[in-house]
Design goal:
By secondary structure, this protein is mostly helical. The chain contains eight helices and no strands. Helix content is 57%, strand content 0%. The longest helix has 15 residues.
Length: 143
């Protein structure tokens, strides 16, 4: 489908994305810096191998291109392939979307190690923290 930087930019309204946009984020997040994203054929083959029921490249492409009547069982299998909860593909999840966009932005900026500390009590990086850093990270030139 498009390039991953365009994919990230098209998401716009966090939590208001379409199934195709959510899948694009998963494809964009599913590789290391410098590697190519998996193809629809790669994902179809992996989902078929994991679940036994054949899935075609065309079915994966239809999901990415906005299929309106997606089979929940297929979405569950695709979600399992990408290591996320099926609810993300079925209903959307604004927090996971922020986390994926953050992961992509950090990777694309060439960050090898990230350590964010708070002056308050030791806390893990929250989704709100990630959201606030997204604007900065997405403006960095690609590594």
């Amino acid at each position: 489908m498009g390039n991953e930087s365009a994919t990230v930019a098209t998401v716009g309204g966090i939590g208001m994305s379409t199934l195709g946009q959510r899948l694009d984020l998963l494809f964009a997040a599913a590789h290391r810096l410098g590697d190519t994203p998996p193809s629809e054929s790669d994902v179809a083959a992996a989902v078929t191998a994991a679940g036994g029921v054949p899935v075609t490249e065309q079915e994966v492409a239809a999901l990415r291109n906005g299929a309106t009547h997606a089979d929940p069982a297929l979405l569950t299998r695709v979600a399992a392939h990408f290591g996320c909860a099926p609810e993300y593909l079925i209903d959307g999840d604004a927090d996971l979307e922020v986390q994926l966009r953050f992961q992509i932005a950090v990777r694309n900026a060439g960050v090898r190690h990230l350590s964010l500390r708070s002056l308050a009590e030791r806390q893990d990086l929250s989704v709100a923290d990630m959201r606030s850093w997204l604007t900065v990270l997405e403006q960095l030139p690609p590594h």
